[in-house]
Structure formats: structure tokens, C-alpha cells
Write a structure and sequence with these properties.
This is PqqA peptide cyclase. Interacts with PqqD. The interaction is necessary for activity of PqqE. GO terms for molecular function: 4 iron, 4 sulfur cluster binding; cyclase activity; iron ion binding; oxidoreductase activity; S-adenosyl-L-methionine binding. The structure is a single chain. By secondary structure, the chain is an alpha/beta fold. The chain has one domain: Aldolase class I (TIM Barrel, Alpha-Beta Barrel). The protein is built from 14 helices and nine strands. The protein has a nine-stranded mixed sheet, covered by helices on one side. Helix 2 links the parallel strand 2 (75-80) and strand 3 (102-107). The termini are far apart. The structure holds S-adenosylmethionine (SAM) and iron/sulfur cluster (2 copies). One iron/sulfur cluster is lined by residues 252-253, 317-318, 321, 323-324, 327, 329-330, 345-346, 349, 351. The site of one iron/sulfur cluster has 14 residues, from helix 12.
């Protein structure tokens, strides 16, 4: 690893076709900052957030964009935290567009103005993915602990369409907004979204702390599946609906990140390059930083990327399973969090010896009165939101 001065990003090197990696990543998730004015109890960002004074500089991020394009990445997802909290978002978008990357802004929307959105579009922003907490403003603002957030998001959604940009609405679903699903679908149609992501919460990082407050019953989940199926049929040609089922009620796990080190890389606010955004929760992994090593080297040779790439690392029952190249054994972070060994089969899989016990916990939690949300406050979890 070549040491470089802080604040600089290692120069890109061309991808060596003789290496053991079959292809370049399709997407790069750029977590521009962990700062965020909202406090969603289901937030998948790490329990320990990176501080603002460790964030990559504008030049660093621009260099990441150039290296990503050279590596063959097609899409950049500008996320966080709240990516619009970065005042240099315009410079980063402009560079990404210049080097030919498709740019997707993943945002809670509350910090945007129409003028800024227009400027971002003019600089080359291709797509906006706006998250909502609920369609009922009171409940939405309670969940996010942010006064006026729902109303502002509705305005932002309209601006996106007025500016003729494609819009996706992302609605993480849990027991405290699950009954709104039909109205969430109507909302997506009303604001002119082309796509709706109905994502049952993934219980990682901060979200795991609030699992009991968020876990829906199996019956409620089954109903959402029916509602989505009916809406998909009814809204063909109007709205595409992506439905992410909750792991706890699934038969097989999802191929987390499309398979470890296969299609997506994640760069944290301070420049650490991860195979998935929760990978820092795993023991024994070494994460390179874009300040020290070229992105292509990290993707191809980085220890963390090599560790669970492919299927050689698998244990039984995955090792001899015909689905092993379909779901890649599920999620390593969930396997570690729930079994203590990241190479174990994700307990979301019905073939895992721990699946039954694990699904039972979820069922029990979903049938008792939900506890209060634990809101994130830097350094101090609380059941009181700090604002709202
Ligand atoms: C971490 S957020 C960052 C971007 C922005 N702050 C926002 O919320 O839109 C990225 C996306 O993940 C979604 N999300 C957050 N936590 C999640 C979880 N535990 N399960 C599923 N989706 C989640 C958000 O709704 C958002 O669409
Ligand atoms: S999910 Fe909520 S708390 Fe987490 S980064 Fe997005 S808006 Fe902020
Ligand atoms: S045993 Fe492993 S590979 Fe087979 S379905 Fe379950 S998680 Fe997937």
C-alpha cells in the first residue's frame, strides 16, 4: 500500500485483465457524509457515524468519480447520511457527469430548494430517489423526528417532475406505517414517480436497535405482498414497483449487494472502501482508503473484497446448495450479527439451522406492543427525538 498525504486520492490504475475478478462494479455508492437532519429509527447507517472533520474533500470525491469511470462503473449513487448536506454536491455531480457516469441522488429531500435541484440537473444529475416515511404527515414527521419533513418532501417530489427529471420514491415499510401502503402507492402515482421502492426494513446497524418497534406481523407482511401484486398489475406502464420482502419472513435470503464484491462498491464519507455499507461490523476485514490506494486495486485485490468474493469461502449448507450462485449465501453482516460467524449461512435462509429460532423471535416481537423508538443522537441513544 503506498502512503499518501491526507486529503489526496491515489491515482487510478487501469484494470488488469489477468486478475481474478471477472468484471468491474456496475455501481458505486458514494456516502458523501453521515450528517443528516433526520433521525429515522430504521436507519441502516452504522451505529458509529463518521464525523464531519474526517470527510473526503471535494477534490477527493472528484478523483473517486474519475477513477470509478476508468474502472468501468456505470452508475454513481450519491447518498449518505444526507448527501445534500454537502455544499460541494454540485462540483461532485458535475465531475461525475463529465466522466460519463449516470448519477442518482438518494435523498431525504428536506434540505433541497428548487433552484438547487435545477442547478444539479443542469450540471448533469440524471435521477432523484426521494425517501418518505409515510403519507400521513404527522406519522411521517414523528418517525423521522423532523417537523415539516413530509410536507417538504411532497414539494420536492413535485419539483423533480416539474424539472422533467425521473423520480423514484423509496418507502421503507415497517409496522408503524404498513397500513399506509395503498396510499403510498397512490402518492407515488400522484407525484409522477416512474418507480416506487417498497422496501421492508433491513435490520442492520441502527435499525437493529429498533427491531421490536419496527417488525410487522407475518399476516401484515403477507397483505403487503398482495397489495403490491395487485398494484403492479393495475399500474403497468404507469409505475414500476420494486418490492423488498423482510428477511425474517423469507424462504431464501436476498443476494446481498448482488453478491460480495460482484457488482457494487461503497465509499464511506472518510474514503474507506467497503464491499457493503455494513461491512465494517465484521471482524478480520481490512478496509483500504481511497486516499491511500487506487480504487481499481482495492476492487480487484483488496483483502475485504477478496474475503467473501465468489463461493470458495462457503460452509455447508451453502457449499453444496444449487442456489449458491443465485443468492451467494445471503448477507455476511446478518450472518455474523446473528450467528457470530460471517461465513455461516444467513439465518434468513430456511435451510439455515438457526432459521426457525430466528423467525420465531421476529414473530414474537411483532405480536407484542411495540416499544418506543430509540432515536439516534450523536453518542447518546434516546427515546426522545432531539427535534420535531
Ligand atoms: C441511508 S439512506 C441515505 C439517503 C437519505 N438520507 C435518505 O434517507 O433518502 C439511503 C436509502 O436507504 C433507505 N433505508 C434506510 N435505512 C433502511 C433500512 N434499514 N432498510 C431499508 N432501507 C433503508 C432510505 O429510505 C434511503 O432510501
Ligand atoms: S435513512 Fe433517515 S436518518 Fe438515515 S440517512 Fe436517510 S434520512 Fe437520515
Ligand atoms: S443454503 Fe445458502 S446458498 Fe442455499 S439457499 Fe440458503 S443461503 Fe442460499
Amino acid at each position: 500500500m503506498n502512503e499518501m498525504a491526507p486529503g489526496t486520492v491515489a491515482e487510478a490504475t487501469p484494470v488488469n485483465e489477468s486478475t481474478n475478478c471477472a468484471r468491474a462494479p456496475i455501481g458505486l455508492l458514494a456516502e458523501l457524509t453521515h450528517r443528516c437532519p433526520l433521525q429515522c429509527p430504521y436507519c441502516s447507517n452504522p451505529v458509529e457515524l463518521e464525523r464531519a472533520n474526517t470527510e473526503l474533500s471535494t477534490e477527493d470525491w472528484q478523483n473517486v468519480m474519475r477513477q470509478a469511470a476508468e474502472l468501468g462503473v456505470l452508475q454513481i449513487h450519491l447518498s449518505g447520511g444526507e448527501p445534500t448536506a454537502r455544499r460541494d454536491l454540485e462540483d461532485i455531480v458535475a465531475t461525475a457527469a463529465e466522466v460519463g457516469l449516470y448519477t442518482n441522488l438518494i435523498t431525504a429531500g428536506v434540505l433541497l430548494t428548487k433552484e438547487r435541484l435545477q442547478k444539479l440537473r443542469d450540471l448533469g444529475l440524471d435521477h432523484v430517489q426521494l425517501s418518505i416515511q409515510d403519507v400521513d404527515p404527522e406519522n411521517a414527521n414523528r418517525i423521522a423526528a423532523y417537523k415539516g419533513g413530509a410536507e417538504k418532501k411532497h414539494e420536492v417530489a413535485k419539483w423533480v417532475r416539474e424539472l422533467d427529471m425521473p423520480l423514484t420514491i423509496n418507502a421503507p415499510l415497517h409496522r408503524q406505517n404498513i397500513d399506509s401502503l395503498p396510499r403510498i402507492i397512490d402518492y407515488a402515482v400522484e407525484v409522477g414517480a416512474g418507480r416506487l421502492e417498497v422496501a421492508h426494513i433491513q435490520y442492520y446497524a441502527w435499525a437493529l436497535k429498533n427491531r421490536a418497534a419496527l417488525m410487522p406481523t407475518r399476516e401484515a407482511f403477507m397483505k403487503t405482498a398482495q397489495i403490491v401484486d395487485e398494484a403492479k398489475e393495475r399500474l403497468k406502464g404507469i409505475l414500476v414497483i420494486d418490492f423488498v420482502v423482510p428477511d425474517y419472513y423469507a424462504k431464501y435470503p436476498k443476494p446481498c449487494m448482488g453478491g460480495w464484491g460482484r457488482g457494487i462498491m461503497n465509499v464511506t464519507p472518510s474514503g474507506r472502501v467497503l464491499p457493503c455499507h455494513a461491512a465494517e461490523s465484521l471482524p478480520g476485514l481490512e478496509f483500504d482508503n481511497v486516499r491511500d490506494r487506487p480504487l481499481a486495486d482495492i476492487w480487484l485485490q483488496g483483502q475485504a473484497f477478496q474475503k467473501f468474493r465468489g463461493t470458495d469461502w462457503m460452509k455447508e449448507p451453502c457449499r453444496s446448495c444449487p442456489r449458491k450462485e443465485i443468492d451467494f449465501g445471503g448477507c455476511r453482516c446478518q450472518a455474523f450479527a446473528l450467528t457470530g460467524d460471517p461465513a455461516n449461512t444467513d439465518p434468513a435462509c430456511s435451510l439455515s439451522p438457526l432459521h426457525k429460532e430466528w423467525a420465531e423471535v421476529a414473530t414474537q416481537e411483532s405480536h407484542v406492543e411495540p416499544p418506543e423508538f430509540i432515536y439516534r443522537r450523536m453518542g447518546k441513544p434516546t427515546t426522545e427525538p432531539t427535534r420535531g
